[in-house]
Amino acid sequence: MKTLGLNLLFIPLLLTIAACSRQYKVSSITPGKTTVDQALKILNEPISVKKSSINEEMGLIYKWDDVSLQVKDKVVKAIHRGPATHEKDLQFWRQKYQGVESKLTQLQSPGEGLLRMNIPSAGLNILYNQRNDQVVTVTEYETL
Amino acid sequence: MKRFKKRVRVHFKLWMRHHSSASVAFVFLLVLTFSLAGVGYKYKSDSKGFVGTSTFAQWSAHHENKATRTLASSEQACEEAKLSAKSIDKEITQLEALYDSGHEVQGNWYGIDLASLPTIQAQLLADHGSLIGNKNHSQNYRQCTDVVCVFNSIYKDKTELSGKLVYYWYLKTGSMLNLSNMVPGQLSKYPGKYQKQTIKLSEYLFNLDELKKFHNLARALPSRFVHNPLFRSIHKIPNKLAIEQEDESTCSKAMVSGQILMGSKCLPEDQTQFSLKVSEHIAQYIDQYHAQKNGKLFSHSKQWLNSSQWEKEQVWDFSSDEFKQVWTSTLDEKHFLDKNSSLNPSKQFSSLLAAYRFRPNLVQAKTPIELRNLIKNEFFHGQSYDANGLYESYLSNTLSSWRKKESTIWKDCLDEHYNPSNKRELASSLENPLFTCVESKVPNFIQDSVLQLKQQETEGCGFFNNQDTFGHVSKRYQTNVDKFLTEQVLKRKLELKSHGDEVVTGLVAKESFLSEVDPGSLFINCFNKSNPSQCYEQNLLMGINKTLKKHNQLSTHYKEVIKKDIASLFPYSQVEKNTQILAKRFLAPFNSQINFAAQELWNNCRRRSSPERLDMSLFFAGGSKYVQASLLNCISEKAQEKLSKIVDQGSFHQVEDKRVSFKLNPAEKIFALTFMKSKMKQALNNILEEELKLEKHRLASYFKDKKRKIQKDLKESKTLLTDVYSYEQVNSACLKDVQKSYPKRVLYHSQRTLDKGPGRKICSSFIELPETKTIIEEKSQKSWENNLKLVEGHLDEFFSDKVSDCIESFPRTLGENFEK
């Protein structure tokens, strides 16, 4: 009874942590450093693994529901993930990186209204959908 | 973790020990009471919905009394459907009457007192005044008493039809056809200039043929396509020029800010193609609006992506340092309407939605049924537009209309012919005068229904008159309507024979439900629940049960019959559609207030200058533009309040000396706010676009004026050219100095943008000055020489130290030849 009572206190806490933990797991992967084996240990089995259809030299694409990894020579080269709640407005990124070099350009995709904001010094590319007024993908890539 | 758990356990035990069991029981009871109260409140609020007519319906009923349509003959109905000066005048009068909010719009627009105009006309000028007239000349429309006059003075059309068609489009869709010589997003800041050409105003205007096509389109657009708060206007690109900053091949485009640009070189001649082209762009705003309400574009929802098997691939291309994305679908190519719609889900969505309405047979032939049903249920309220779809829809309308009118028809005949003392006679014969009375009303009812369909439905006249295309389905309609009504009358006859008074009571109960309960209210109370249709159906059933409770003399069996009967009158999709139409009409006159409120909010918030961090729950995030955090935070704090004030006003209607007020209840306000929020955000976005342009011009003038002074200050600076190592170093030092001269209030450009733009320009031109260049070269040469000497000195010292070390480490006896 006592254990049950205490567990009732901990369950909501654990659920909150579990929700954040997936983001935490993804954030523990570093492009250019984390190997594919390490990444698979962190994220478990992907839904699919395919060669890139855009350009085979881009490597293999490991896909999960919420994230995809670009892997070449067994090392994660780029992470494409959805934004966290506070990252959904492009304004957040504009303000956060206002002091550094960034480039905002249109992505060639008819009818989609997509803009990409590239921040080379941070190894970040932010994909923003004007129609949705939301950031749709945050790409972290290896910087040399 | 274990320690923490132990600590909590210990403290909990201590707490329990200190507090008596009685107080624990009291606390428990208190918690239980509040929980039950909470549940009860929720139950009550959920079940409130079926009391009373919604404000939208009341307001609409008031206006429909003004805008009564008399049913003409069948030939007249179809004649009136053809465009003529008379028919359009009539339609405009009827439409205008539906939008009267009773409010006056204050102000003057180029000589016209807005308060003297009907609300919707004043609304149009207040909202879209910038899209009217030659912006290179001063304008005065003092001689005009309505907007049609204004439009016709621009068109110089003696028939006056052009102005009426433009106004008609606005009334039907809530958006405006451009009548000015500016194109949104044009490169030149001067009106009348496009693609570096000077162009007359008349070239920007849609000609009469094109306006007629817009008229036909406006009549055909389904409810989801009209009064979309994100869709503002349509603009013609003049002189068959290409759209600036787009490929030559791009014929038209829908801007995120709400404007559709149509290239004049590719406006289709054919009505169907024209309707398809325009509605495809409008469909993008439907998708956008869905994202505003639900957080995601419908075309990117799991439902849509799964139904067409779309997959997204994203890569970072290291060779070009570019992000790339591509959509692929495993659906067979033949299931896409054309190559364009197979590019990505957004394109597929907009082309399918448009084709569903205007090329239903193509959609029927190509699109998988799952996808068709998804579109049908989500966006077309269960209706389809192919011949069979029209037949089903018209039949359903007619039968639904019968079910609603049935009780009145029977009641009238019962009042005339029914007598409880004649019950036996009723029970023994099916040829009673009562039944004959009802049967005699059926042909008129069918005739009226057909007339209404011809008047109100775009394809109505075609359906009943065009035997080649619709002959088979219109015959089926006639046959089945006859059959159904005969069956219904027979059913009631048999019920009356066997149940007698119960049937009469049942009819009374049905009528009282129809007069007491507004399904629109039920919909509004459920629209933001997780499963709105389930909530609606539960509430509808509760409402029916409540009505039936007042008639306890009904048997359980007959109560079930009536329940099913009434429930079938108000299917969720139909109620959703009707309520949204009413709400949009009610709210349309508030658009100018929303625009004013947005401008006022912006002007107030601009004054807030404290340095702030961005608040994450932003009402308006500035889209892709940089905006000072203080401005955005201020807007987020105050926008809701502004909107609530507008919604609180409600509408009113002056009837002689009496003022009838229509105020929204709390649930209706929440419903109304979902429409108004999108409008407000769009208004804020438009303000931002204008403000950004103004600030760019302001900064350009500012730096032009200040350039000399800044350069003088730089020249006179004692510290700037003191330590010089390179051009880049001087540039950076220069920028730091120039930053002190930046204007204080810059809202839409970050410091880095100013550094990269005017800052760098000033510093570059300063560095390029001959005297500066000379100083830099001299000093950097001197620095270089000093460094060289220093290094050489260090190297000498370094090497001599090393030599000494070597000699110490490897001592040699001085030989005979060593000269001391």
Task: Please describe what this structure looks like.
The complex is a heterodimer of chains A (144) and B (820). Chain A has 144 residues and is an alpha+beta fold. In chain A, 28% of the residues lie in helices and 31% in strands. Chain A folds into two domains: 1-76, no CATH class; 82-144. Chain B is an alpha/beta fold and 820 residues long. In chain B, 63% of the residues lie in helices and 6% in strands. Chain B contains 30 helices and 14 strands. Chain B has a four-stranded mixed beta sheet with strand order 4-8-10-9. In chain B, strands 1-2 form a two-stranded antiparallel ribbon. A two-stranded parallel ribbon of chain B has the order 3-5. Classes of the chains: A alpha+beta (144), B alpha/beta (820). At the A-B interface, helix 1, strand 4, helix 3, strand 6 and strand 7 of A face helix 1, helix 10, strand 11, strand 12 and helix 12 of B.
According to DSSP, the number of beta strands of chain A is 8
How many helices of chain A?
3
Unreliable sequence segments of chain A: none
Structural class of chain A: alpha+beta
Descriptive keywords:
heterodimer; A: about 140 residues; alpha+beta; eight-stranded antiparallel β-sheet; 3 helices; B: about 800 residues; alpha/beta; four-stranded mixed β-sheet; 30 helices; about 65% helix
